[in-house]
């Protein structure tokens, strides 16, 4: 699930103080799609790995992103609502963290999504850590449609086989 992230871009972004915002804004304009994409991937990785103690840092980083790059849609139309999406993911990941006690998070988790009123198939994302599952719960929760449901489940018993 993990992709390679340019740590220098993320570190510089996270460590920047308000006096550096204008310079960073200019760098992102010049760096364009690829540089901003790397920043977003770094922020996604922060959110994916965050737990209760680090969620405020992720929220601060997203607020900083909104201040430095207030119109990400000018870089790519697909990013028009990226800051709102990240904020909702933070909210929903906090929901998942609040629902499952830390001592119950070990083991294998999965996400299941379905809409029983359509002919679409059930989507299942198995073999996840709790951090990955909580992130996917938040990611899919933000766009849940009417009648769809989303389940964050811990795998207790498991039998796996492979075809030959």
Report low-confidence residues grouped into runs of 5 or more. Answer: none
Helix amount: 40-55%
Order of helices and strands: HHHHEEHE
Q: What would the principal axes of the Cα set say about the shape?
A: globular
Spatial ordering of strands, largest sheet: 2-1-3
Terminal residue distance: 26 Å
Q: What structural class should be given to the helix and strand makeup?
A: mainly alpha
Q: Give the mean pLDDT.
A: 93
Give Rg in angstroms: 18 Å
Care to count the β-strands?
Answer: 3
How many individual helices? 5
Largest sheet: number of strands, sense, barrel closure: 3 strands, antiparallel
Proportion of beta-strand residues: 5-15%
Task: Report on this structure.
With 164 residues, this protein is mainly α. Helices cover 50% and strands 11% of the residues. The chain is built from five helices and three strands; from the N terminus they run ααααββαβ. It has helices at 7-15, 21-49, 55-68, 82-99, 130-141, and strands at residues 109-114, 123-128, 149-154. Strands 2-1-3 form a three-stranded antiparallel β-sheet, covered by helices on one side. A hairpin with an 8-residue loop joins strand 1 (109-114) and strand 2. Helix 4 (82-99) crosses helix 5 (130-141). The longest helix is centred in the first third of the chain and has 29 residues, at 21-49. It is globular and about 55 Å long. The model has no long low-confidence stretch (mean pLDDT 93).
């Amino acid at each position: 699930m993990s992709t390679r992230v340019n740590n220098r871009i993320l570190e510089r972004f996270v460590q920047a103080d308000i006096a550096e915002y204008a310079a960073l804004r200019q760098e992102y304009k010049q760096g364009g799609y690829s540089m901003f994409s790397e920043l977003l991937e770094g922020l996604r990785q922060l959110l994916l790995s965050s737990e209760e103690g680090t969620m405020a840092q992720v929220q601060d980083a997203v607020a900083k992103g909104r201040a430095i790059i207030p119109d990400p849609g000018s870089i790519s139309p697909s990013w028009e609502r990226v800051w709102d999406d990240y904020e909702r993911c933070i909210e929903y990941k906090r929901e998942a963290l609040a629902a499952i006690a830390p001592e119950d998070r070990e083991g294998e988790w999965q996400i299941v999504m379905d809409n029983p009123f359509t002919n679409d198939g059930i989507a299942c994302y198995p073999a996840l850590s709790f951090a990955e599952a909580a992130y996917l719960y938040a990611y899919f929760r933000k766009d849940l449609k009417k009648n769809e449901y989303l389940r964050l489940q811990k795998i207790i018993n498991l039998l796996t086989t492979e075809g030959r």
